[in-house]
TrEMBL record:
Gene source species: Carnobacterium divergens DSM 20623
Binding site for a divalent metal cation 1: 65, 103, 331, 334
Quaternary structure, from the entry: Homohexamer.
Residue ranges of the TM segments: none
Domain of life: Bacteria
A Pfam family hit: DUF34_NIF3
Name of the protein: GTP cyclohydrolase 1 type 2 homolog
Single GO MF annotation: metal ion binding
Protein family membership: Belongs to the GTP cyclohydrolase I type 2/NIF3 family.
Protein keywords: Metal-binding
UniProt: a divalent metal cation 2 binding residues: 64
GO cellular component: cytoplasm
Length: 371
């Protein structure tokens, strides 16, 4: 498997265009144009993680936090950050970062966080992107119906909701055409009207896949000029966004829930922003990383408690004033991305028959300690 194949599969799952503007996602060091046998997944890339990668002989580091968040001004390797870049290049280790596109992806990092704390009936807390749908109707000789239909679904058409794929509809009928001028018809003769038993295949797909679907159509269709229609669908929208909100199975006090959060994420401590730790709560919003500024979205979704990291002092005052209880477990809870990514890549390893080894970094990159 090459790096390009692997990342093409990943970007189907978490397209780069879902990332926030200015977020440096994607390949940052090395090349994907090489075979990949070992992948190391990590939250952060620090010098000790690079050492781990070199020691384990990995070809690709897959990180949630981009390695180059700020551009380097020079490449003097006395600087530890620069030395990391040099070591990675020297050992031909590529580095790919999936940041806010992994946060918002359906069944991505924020869903993993929601599952970890056990919320149900989960919905998006703060919508950042909406993708419309299109419908393709294409006319194809009956003999080629299956070939074209399979090509379309392979290119990503025919997914309805999270649980159904390969959805399509076929009608049979008669197609008519007269090839003229310099036509080179697959079926029929110049200047003679032809009648062909044809099928009309209908499929829907997210509009950002239009170019890919059209390419699959042209590559699989036997005609010189395939007849097809594209429609805009009004009743399907895919929403993506930051944070998840849902309900705990039963009410619990803020105090007890804080203890649970500590246990779930194996924390030495956390910061609690509340006027009443004995208050009973049930509806919980969670957003990985540093997402204090999105607390109004948690309120709008009627969350009793909002879990996010790096909450700023004055924001905490505003949260209290607005009657929201907040748990700041630290930014490092995002390290559950290692398990989530490793599970995902292991599923693909099986479904795509890839000969790869997936390793989760076993280093703790949390810079904070409690005293
Ligand atoms: Zn983060």
């Amino acid at each position: 498997m090459t790096g390009k194949e692997f990342i093409a599969k990943f970007e189907e799952f978490a397209p780069m265009e879902l990332a926030e503007a200015g977020d440096p996602v994607g390949l940052q060091i090395g090349t994907l144009d090489k075979p990949i046998k070992k992948i190391l997944v990590t939250l952060d890339i620090r010098p000790e993680v690079v050492e781990e990668a070199i020691e384990k002989g990995v070809d690709l580091i897959f990180a949630h936090h981009p390695i180059m968040f700020r551009a380097a001004k020079n490449l003097i390797t006395d600087n530890p950050q620069n030395k990391m870049y040099a070591d990675l290049l020297k050992h031909n280790i590529a580095v790919y970062g999936a940041h806010t596109n992994l946060d918002v992806a359906t069944n991505g990092l924020n869903d993993w966080l929601g599952q970890a704390i056990g919320i149900k009936n989960t919905e998006i807390m703060h919508i950042t992107n909406q993708t419309g749908y299109k419908k393709l109707a294409v006319y194809v000789p009956k003999s080629d119906e299956e070939k074209v239909r399979v090509a379309l679904t392979k290119a990503g058409a025919g997914k309805i909701g999270p649980n159904y794929e390969n959805c399509s509809y076929t009608l049979e009928g008669t197609g008519r055409f007269t090839p003229i001028n310099g036509a080179m018809p697959t079926i029929g003769t110049l200047n003679q009207t032809e009648e062909v038993e044809e099928a009309r295949i209908e499929v829907i797909f997210p509009e950002h896949k239009t170019a890919k679907i059209e390419r699959a159509l042209f590559e699989s269709h036997p005609y010189e000029e395939p007849g097809y229609d594209l429609y805009t669908i009004e009743n399907f929208v895919d929403a993506y966004g930051l944070g998840r909100v849902g309900d705990l199975p039963e009410p619990i006090s803020v105090n007890d829930f804080s203890e649970k959060v500590k246990a779930i994420f194996q924390l030495e401590g956390l910061r609690l922003v509340t006027t009443d730790p004995s208050k009973m709560i049930q509806r919980v919003a969670i957003c990985g990383g540093d997402a204090g500024k999105y607390y109004p979205s948690a309120l709008k979704k009627q969350a009793d408690v909002y879990i996010t990291g790096d909450v700023y002092y004055h924001t905490a005052h505003d949260m209290l004033a607005d009657g929201l209880t907040v748990i700041d477990p630290g930014h490092h809870i995002e390290s559950i991305c290692k398990e989530g990514l490793a599970d995902l890549f292991t599923q693909w390893k099986v479904s795509e028959s890839w000969e790869i080894e997936i390793i989760q970094s076993n280093l703790n990159t949390d810079p904070y300690r409690f005293k």
